[in-house]
Amino acid sequence: MDLEHTPQDEDFRSQVRAWLAAHVPAVPLPSLETEEGFAAHREWEREMYADRWSVVSWPEEYGGRGASPVRRLIFEEEYHAASAPGRVGQNGISLLAPTLFAHGTEEQLARLLPPMASGETVWAQAWSEPESGSDLASLRSTAVRTGGGWLLHGHKTWSSRAAFADRAFGLFRGGPAADRPHHGLTYLMFDLRAPGVTVRPIGRLDGRPAFAEIFLDGVFVPDRDVIGEPGQGWRIAMSTAADERGTTLRAPGRFLAAADRLAALWRAAADPRDSAVRDRVADAVIAARAYQLFTYAQVSRPAAAGPDRPGTGHGGDGAAAASLGKVFWSELDIRLHETALDLLGPAGELADAAGEVPDHGRWAEGWTFALAGTLYAGTNEIQRDIIAERLLGLPKERRR
Length: 400
Ligand SMILES: Cc1cc2nc3c(=O)[nH]c(=O)nc-3n(C[C@H](O)[C@H](O)[C@H](O)COP(=O)(O)OP(=O)(O)OC[C@H]3O[C@@H](n4cnc5c(N)ncnc54)[C@H](O)[C@@H]3O)c2cc1C
What we know:
This protein is of the alpha+beta class. 45% of the residues lie in helices and 13% in strands.
């Protein structure tokens, strides 16, 4: 395997770096989990879209650059190295868009993708329900046929960004054989401000409304907002899940940048004679690099990037490998942040509101978010089951 990038790829990297150097705000934007910060991050998406950097791997007709999976990884490396703002459009760009490329209609692509790429429409994922997280197929919200569309009833929860977002996508029970868990599920998109929708924010550890519950009481969805065939939602949702766990959500650039910041922190703050700390820093840096190489290997496999799946490196049989990556990056993220907090001592636990804390309180905020990495996108226990059964061929767990 060739581990060198081509001169053209390096040229692409230089273009990304130059654009980011000229545009990334010198002072970090306010947290995107606040109304003010959400608006500022939406504006940042618009700025990137204007120069076609918001969705580099999408076809040009939808605002992208048709970049290869390798170039998308290069983009992510530069993006995180430049400490560019968090992506408020991530649910749409990383989860819904690959699903639409694979299962949506031409009309849906033309109507939904450009406003998603520009930040005009920010999407929330409405999958989880109070009694349906890991066992998603047990979901109870319904979609009932009505003239020209569907009426939604039910209760979704833990929906990231839904407090301020515009639209959501989720699974609903309805259609043939709807009484059997994986059957009769329909994948639909709906407006979060439509009549019958109530959004109730949920605060996270720092009190900011990073999530929301969504109550649906007879919400009308037109037929054009069904993804794929009614009743086929489970199969389609599994392609979203592979993207969520794989590189489209968490490319290695994020962890490489954190590992670089950790190494810089160690050089500035640590006693070089303390070999225990030095080894922890070295292990984290090596693990970030290992995830980078694993990911490049994954997306370089000929089967990985089908022409109908721009942006994803985990189509087809790569889905189980995405679970492998998910367990690895989520545990790595916690290691990186815990090591940094140990190096910083008590000051590292202060939030950015304190004004003079190291790195604008980024390590403390990053740590609380890293803790959630083993839960969202499917818990690591579920990923380990998938790895055991589909990659290692171990016997299936006995299900109740
Ligand atoms: C930061 C964050 C953001 C999120 N954003 C969204 C979002 O935008 N949209 C959305 O729809 N959801 C979102 N979620 C919800 C997330 O997808 C669920 O929390 C997750 O799927 C787990 O479901 P649960 O919380 O119901 O836990 P449960 O499913 O009740 O699991 C509880 C525990 O039991 C374990 N467990 C359950 N079943 C098994 C099994 N068969 N084998 C072994 N262990 C098992 C689990 O691993 C876990 O440790 C988010 C969650 C977090 C933390």
